[in-house]
């Protein structure tokens, strides 16, 4: 059950990358020559709020121009087009199939634009710092669950993970109704993960790192990447239990406080099939970030004295402050838009007078460090 493995040549390259590489990147991120800046969209780009909600999963557009015409957006070129497509990603996800754009998910709430804020740079610095620490132990990669990544980067506190699938208990602790808590996690979780993904993609595009999301299984106090056939068993078990519990999507399971029961049933089915194949049983499974240092940036790196960020604590504090402030701003904006006549799917929650105060309480209790 070896999971995803690097070949020997890749392993050799990664292990022999000099730690000065990371130091050179830190200088760039902290104000040195970072290269081209992210291009800010011109003022004439209209917000997509009035058009994107008419999109549907599976909807196809024959090309980029067709997509822009539907969204009532100008046709762009070069770096401006790249920035525009990043802006689209705040409202929906899509896949490229040749020239076609296929809509895969439409967000109920537009994501916060992390690309034009301090988020991306702060996350990049802390990710590279993690890799530098690993290099001190002679390790070229890191494997972290989503919750571990959020905690490590200081984007949330321990309560966020603790109560993520225990909404009733969080309600008892904070005296806040379940509807508000479900609304909070539905909005917040996707935005935080998207922020991390965007930062990692930016580093990946510069060939500083390589990364992917992998399924990890745990057994006998060990963790490892799941092989393809094991992932398929887990997926089939999830589909079966989802149908058995009369839900269509995973988020419905979480919203109804059934996540633990769901996973217990899934693992029971998985272990039954593993036992038939005379394979070891698993205790749990999760999705993890698998990050390695790239080799392209070895060229022309300068020798520097320090490898780990000297101001790590300040950067972590700054990132958490950004997360808290942006999410609180999001509550105010959603409430104001509702007052202006915008209809959300859960307007019955947002329209309440205590919506903003409840959101602030949840943010302070689960995000603020």
Summarize the structure in words.
It is a single chain. The protein has helices at 8-15, 20-29, 64-71, 78-88, 119-136, 146-152, 158-162, 167-174, 178-205, 228-244, 250-255, 259-276, 312-339, 347-350, 355-366, and strands spanning 60-61, 92-97, 100-106, 141-145, 209-219, 222-225, 284-293. The protein is an alpha+beta fold. It has a domain at 52-109. Strands 4-7-5-6 form a four-stranded antiparallel beta sheet. It has a three-stranded antiparallel beta sheet with strand order 1-3-2. Strand 5 and strand 6 (222-225) form a beta hairpin. Helix 10 packs across helix 12 (259-276) and helix 13 (312-339) runs antiparallel to helix 15. The protein starts with 7 loop residues before the first helix and ends with a helix.
- Following the backbone from N to C, one meets helices and strands in this order, namely HHEHHEEHEHHHHEEHHHEHHH
Number of helices: 15
Quaternary structure state of the chains depicted: single chain
**Adjacency order of strands in the biggest sheet:** 4-7-5-6
Query: N-to-C terminal Cα separation, in Å?
Result: 38 Å
**What percentage of residues falls in helices of 4 or more residues?**
40-55%
Uncertain stretches of 5 or more adjacent residues:
1-45, 297-307
User: Roughly how many Å is the radius of gyration?
Assistant: 22 Å
């Amino acid at each position: 059950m070896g999971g995803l493995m690097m070949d020997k040549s890749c392993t050799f390259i990664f292990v022999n990358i000099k730690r000065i590489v990371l130091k050179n990147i830190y200088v760039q991120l902290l104000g040195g020559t970072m290269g081209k800046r992210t291009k800010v969209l011109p003022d004439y780009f209209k917000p997509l709020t009035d058009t994107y909600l008419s999109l549907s999963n599976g909807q196809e557009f024959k090309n980029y121009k067709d997509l822009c015409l539907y969204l009532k957006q100008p046709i762009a070129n070069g770096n401006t087009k790249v920035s525009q497509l990043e802006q689209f990603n705040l409202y929906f996800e899509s896949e490229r199939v040749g020239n076609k754009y296929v809509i895969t998910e439409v967000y109920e709430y537009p994501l916060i634009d992390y690309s034009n804020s301090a988020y991306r740079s702060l996350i990049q610095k802390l990710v590279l710092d993690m890799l530098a620490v690993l290099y001190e132990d002679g390790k070229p990669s890191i494997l972290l669950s989503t919750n571990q990544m959020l905690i490590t980067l200081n984007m949330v506190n321990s309560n966020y993970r603790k109560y993520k699938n225990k909404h009733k208990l969080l309600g008892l602790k904070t005296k806040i109704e379940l509807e508000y808590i479900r609304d909070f996690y539905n909005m917040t979780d996707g935005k935080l993960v998207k922020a991390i993904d965007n930062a990692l993609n930016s580093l990946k595009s510069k060939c500083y790192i390589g990364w992917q999301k992998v399924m990890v299984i745990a057994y006998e106090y060990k963790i490892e990447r799941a092989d393809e056939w094991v992932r398929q068993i887990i997926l089939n078990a999830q589909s079966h239990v989802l149908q058995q519990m009369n839900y269509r999507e995973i988020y419905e399971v979480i919203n109804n406080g059934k996540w633990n029961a769901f996973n217990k049933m899934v693992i029971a089915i998985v272990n039954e099939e593993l036992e038939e194949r005379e394979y070891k049983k698993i205790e749990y499974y999760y999705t993890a970030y698998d990050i390695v240092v790239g080799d392209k940036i070895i060229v022309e790196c300068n020798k520097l004295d320090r490898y780990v960020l000297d101001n790590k604590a300040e950067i972590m504090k700054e990132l958490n402050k950004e997360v808290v402030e942006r999410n609180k701003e999001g509550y105010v904006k959603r409430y104001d838009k509702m007052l202006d006549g915008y209809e959300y799917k859960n307007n019955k929650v947002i329209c309440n007078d205590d919506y903003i105060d409840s959101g602030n309480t949840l943010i302070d209790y689960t995000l603020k460090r």
